[in-house]
Amino acid sequence: MSTPGDPAQPDLESCRGTMSAEEDAKWLQWVTHQFETIAGEDREINLQEFKTALNVKESFFAERFFALFDSDGSGTITLQELLEALTLLIHGNPMDKLKFLFQVYDVDGSGSIDADELRTVLQSCMRESAISLPDEKLDQLTLALFESADKDNNGAITFDELRNELQRFPGVMENLTISAAHWLTPPAARPRSRRPRPLTSAYWHNHRSHLLCLAAYAGLHVLLFTLAACAHRALGASVMVAKGCGQCLNLDCSFIVVLMLRRCLTWLRATWLAQVLPLDQNIQFHQLMGWVVVGLSLVHTVAHVANFAFQAQSGASPFRFWELLLTTRPGIGWVRGSASPTGVALLLLLLLMFVCSSSCIRRSGHFEVFYWTHLSYLPMWILLIVHGPSFWKWLLVPGILFFLEKAIGLAVSRMAALCIVEVNLLPSKVTHLLIKRPPLFHYRPGDYLYLNVPTIARYEWHPFTISSAPEQKDTIWLHVRSQGQWTNRLYESFKTSDPVDSKRLSRSLRMRRSQRKPQSFQCQPIQSGAAVQGAVASSKDVIVELTSYRPRGTPQHGDPGPVPTGTEESAQAQRRTTSEWGLVSEMSSENHLFCNIKCYIDGPYGTPTRRIFASEHAVLIGAGIGITPFASILQSIMYRHQKRKHICPSCQHSWMDNVQDEDMKLHKVDFIWINRDQRSFEWFVSLLTKLELDQAEETPEGPFLELHMYMTSALGKNDMKAIGLQMALDLLAKKEKKDSITGLQTRTQPGRPDWRKVFQKVAAEKKGKVQVFFCGSPALAKVLKGHCEHFSFRFFQENF
């Protein structure tokens, strides 16, 4: 464990000097326990056991760490050697950690790092961070870091030069660690949630409409229960409870359907009521009301059963208990004494629906069970009308609205079948569908629709966010992530479709003639100084493709080379057909298909993202495929900016109108996209490239749209297995004015965002009231919601 310039071993006690005696004892006990678990009976750790325990992807780092830990060169690590090394790495000072890092990079032990050693280290860093770059790019990264660190140009990096280079990155030296070694440190106690208490002003700011509606809902139930119970107080306590619950059930069983009237809710979003009612929580209120209905029904039933048992036992009724409960003989009810048997049937149907609505049913590949059992609301309404003498009055208005919406939806969705005209199979099993847009289909950015593809499942409808902008007139774009049974079948059906047809030329000629029509907009390829180009889709209405990027002139897999784009002839020249799926052409890439598949859509329906254009400072956060609603919004912003942009025909000078769109009050937009791996960025990188180019000539006040990209699989600058790569990426990005991972001008940051710092920066900009819009996992939504409450930002989450 000797180091250049300091051959002595590190002082074990001084390294642990910052720890208290109690903490030191706990740490030693933990490391000893972990060592015994890994080492086994021989009480020593060999290289293979070390690799497994360290949990590293690249054996280079495991071998280098093992060699440095094994101070006596015996080929195994003892407990004492492990404690010395871990003490240095975890509790050592920055200089000790830097010396260890230098030894890792100095592969041949010569006391300096040459260019080939640095390239080997950076290649291993890339594998650890799941980053894949061409060899030419790796060479560029190596030279950028090597030339920056090698100040004396002697062809080698010394320890002092590496230290000086690291000092350009504040905080890195002090926090160097081996993050993958999760067994090195004992698990820390989970911090308490920072979520504000319900009575704080921050919580009230984000939940006032929600809380007011809950209070009104609870108050109305108390009022209805009290009035009904008082009206029957002469009949005893059990009847009072039953009647009180029954009156509340009249309200709940009729109003619960109103919360799922998507067309009505979409219309309400365009009115002032959207500022008062919590329309974004309609599904949560629907679920809450479902729990209330089940609870009230059980209490209602128990109260009646107690009353029947009392009557049968006391002789107050000539009928036996089972006759009172299951037959029409006692004449209880307003329709031939059918209240008791209909009540039993209602309870059984309700419990069946409740059980089949649980998340374990819906999300375990049995969506059909949830769907078909939920249709039992129709017989339930009939039974409720027969069961309760006044229920029909409560149902009258909600029922009319419900059947009107269903009739309109059925008529619109089944009026004419649409066609999926193009399909792109993207990384991470994402299916990009292009659907021919109906003439009267009007939507807003961020809206969603329900899709039915009869060849996949005749009766299933699934919601998907529209990822194309409303200004795009000819097609509707959907990006479908394969996460369930239906979406996997959709992806696999295109993946395995066989483009073979005996009538290929005749079918292709008919399709070409049927689809020929004048072009309204000429497709413009994306070009920049960085030579980044989008792989443009052949659909003639597409302004910019959102699926992938590649360096100009670099063929895709199976692509013979650059092909003309944006013309009818170039798109039609590659078409061919199949019979079963109606496939009529296939691009040179097997993942890009032209087709003619029948489908139906129901929508559009509004979401919380409709508020974005009425915001002053909008923060859009997408995680993975959660970018889809923001793709539509960002495209719409691009269209509106192009509308305000003017170019002088003489000098080609461009400028923007200062007059804002009457429907767009935005002063600033921050777009944050979090992805797990590198390939996931290919979905929309071309759109983001175009947006960056549009922002290049903004006013000195700063860009109107600011992009922030994060890759969670990449290790951060504080990790010894990534520091070199991250430094090289920073240096090359400054030199080339683009990011090596995505090709964007915006640098892709490793790891997850520090949300506290992100929101502090947003608050400091003072561009107006901040509203945060999120689409992604519920776990991340909870974290973001807590931070928004802390900074008094409004938070909106995409829900279906």
Automatic annotation (TrEMBL):
* GO cellular component, as recorded: NADPH oxidase complex
Residues in FAD-binding FR-type domain copies: 413-525
Indicate yes or no for the key word NADP.
Answer: yes
Where do the EF-hand domain residues begin and end? Answer: 57-92, 93-128, 137-172
Under InterPro entries, the record lists: EF-hand-dom_pair, EF_Hand_1_Ca_BS, EF_hand_dom, FAD-bd_8, FAD-bd_FR_type, Fe3_Rdtase_TM_dom, Fe_red_NAD-bd_6, FNR_nucleotide-bd
The record's listing under SUPFAM superfamilies reads: EF-hand, Ferredoxin reductase-like, C-terminal NADP-linked domain, Riboflavin synthase domain-like
Keyword list, A-Z = Calcium, FAD, Flavoprotein, Membrane, Metal-binding, NADP, Oxidoreductase, Transmembrane, Transmembrane helix
UniProt source species = Acinonyx jubatus (Cheetah)
**GO MF terms held by the record:** calcium ion binding; superoxide-generating NAD(P)H oxidase activity
Q: Which PANTHER family match?
A: NADPH OXIDASE, NADPH OXIDASE 5
> Gene encoding it?
NOX5
Please note every region of biased composition (Basic residues): 505-516
Q: Where is the composition biased (Polar residues)?
A: 567-576
- Which SMART domains does UniProt cross-reference here? EFh
Localization, UniProt = Membrane
Task: Identify its membrane topology class.
Answer: Multi-pass membrane protein
Which residues are listed as membrane-spanning?
211-235, 288-312, 332-357, 369-387
Ranges for the region named Disordered are 499-524, 548-576
Specify one Pfam family. FAD_binding_8
Protein's UniProt name: NADPH oxidase 5 isoform X1
